[in-house]
Design a protein that fits this description.
Elements: H1 15-28, E1 34-35, H2 47-58, H3 71-85, E2 94-98, H4 99-111, E3 117-122, H5 126-134, E4 138-143, H6 154-160, E5 165-170, H7 183-194, E6 200-204, H8 220-223, E7 231-236, E8 248-252, H9 255-268, H10 274-285, H11 289-309, E9 325-326, H12 347-358, E10 360-361, E11 363-364, E12 374-377, H13 382-397
Parallel strand pairs: 1-10, 3-4, 3-5, 5-6, 6-7
Antiparallel strand pairs: 2-8, 7-8, 9-12, 11-12
Helix pairs in contact: 2-10, 3-10, 4-5, 4-9, 6-7, 11-13
Length: about 400
């Protein structure tokens, strides 16, 4: 059989996807698994967005879409950035993509040459490093430990940047930790980046509306306008409006970069679903009260999960500022043995034993670049969270 490309040798299937598949396999066998692996809102897409998609289909908007996004959606994205972030972008500085993930992929493919470095704060969303590798880049991870709230320190960022650095990637609120940067913290990072004019800045702001306890989101191009001409902002409809399946992402940045990304998209997928774009226009321009109501429900879930996990022997859970994840430390469980006789040597062992013996699916922290932790998504209903947390507590109590 002919060989696959060598670029795949160091690229793995996402651990969250792998754990989700394993949970579904157990569920298909009749096991009642509570899955906390997927970063997907359990809410419905807003009805007015669905109705807009339906109307677009009936109106004949079912032909090939413009490669960079419909004028209507690009205009709605313009308004979103002005309303939410106080940033002005021209139409040629905006690109609509098949989910936010394609924006990141396009950017890396359009800018990275072999050996170029991408600085990524760790822990990080599993796809960042692999997408950089596929594009020929070298991911350089910077540890953001729990004792700093899982946030990137300016001195650590400064130490990571080299003459080979092409991108610095920021994701706050963060997946997997939920950590978010204050304006002062973001300003301190900006001061470092101002000293490196040849470095692109990517900010994945997919969770910008999911912040709690009065925390105010900020994005680096708004905090420091002098960085705007080399900053790419990634966003989309998936998390804010519960539209993961619609695959509507968008980004804004310098026109020359967007032009290169547009070219790359043309070689991969071309345009994005026309009816999905119509739905996204309605979501962006429609009533925003629902976003705040759902964020408040996420906060309630976060508070419950953090308190419940901290009652589990061997687990210490930090309370994050945003997103819908917690990243508890399971160091107190390492070295112990499960009731079924399985020795827990690391967080991967913990995650698999929890799934197989307690039927709760989480993702090992090793997949996100930091151990011994696990990622738990609380983007699910309270009944499931209560069941899952009770099982986790019982599982930890049974370790010896």
């Amino acid at each position: 059989m002919p060989a696959l490309a060598s670029r795949l040798a160091d690229v793995k299937v996402s651990a969250s996807v792998a754990m989700t598949i394993k949970a579904r396999e157990l569920a298909a066998q009749g096991v009642k698994v509570v899955s906390l692996t997927t970063g997907e809102p359990d809410f419905d897409t807003p009805r007015h967005a669905i109705e807009a998609a339906y109307k677009a289909a009936l109106d004949g908007q079912t032909k090939y879409p413009p490669q960079g996004g419909t004028p209507a959606l690009k205009a709605a994205v313009q308004r979103k950035f002005k309303r939410d972030n106080n940033l002005d972008y021209a139409m040629d500085e905006i690109l609509v993509t098949n989910g936010g993930k394609q924006s990141i992929f396009n950017a890396f493919m359009a800018t990275l040459d072999p050996g170029d470095e991408v600085v990524i704060p760790s822990p990080f969303w599993v796809s960042y490093a692999d997408m950089a590798k596929v594009a020929g880049g070298v991911p350089v991870t910077v540890s953001c430990p729990q004792n700093n709230g899982f946030k990137l320190r300016p001195e650590d960022l400064a130490a990571a940047i080299t003459p080979k650095t092409r991108w610095v990637l920021l994701n706050f609120p963060n997946n997997p930790t939920g950590a978010a940067c204050s304006r002062a913290e973001m300003k301190a990072l900006a001061e470092v980046l101002l000293r490196h004019p040849d470095v692109w800045i990517m900010t994945d702001d997919m969770y910008e509306h999911l912040v709690y306890d009065g925390f105010e989101f900020c994005t680096i191009a708004e905090v420091e306008p002098r960085l705007k001409d080399r900053t790419l902002i990634i966003s989309g409809a998936s998390k804010t409006y519960a539209m993961t399946g619609w695959r509507i992402g968008f980004c804004a940045g310098p026109a020359e970069l967007i032009k290169g990304m547009f070219n790359m998209q043309g070689q991969a997928t071309a345009g994005v679903s026309t009816v999905g774009q119509a739905a996204a226009v309605a979501a962006l321009d429609g009533p925003q009260e629902l976003v705040k109501e759902r964020a408040e429900e996420y906060r309630r879930r976060r508070d419950f999960v953090v308190e419940a996990l901290n009652q589990a022997p061997g687990i210490a859970c930090h309370k994050p500022e945003g997103a819908f994840y917690v990243f508890p430390n399971v160091a107190g469980c390492i070295g112990k043995t499960t009731p079924a006789g399985r020795k827990i040597e690391n967080d991967t062992d913990f995650a698999f034993a929890l799934l197989e013996e307690a039927h709760v699916a989480v993702v090992q922290g090793a997949a996100y670049g930091m151990s011994p932790y696990v990622r738990i998504s609380y983007a699910t209903d309270m009944d499931s969270l209560r069941t899952a947390c009770a099982r986790i507590q019982d599982f930890c109590k049974g370790l010896s």
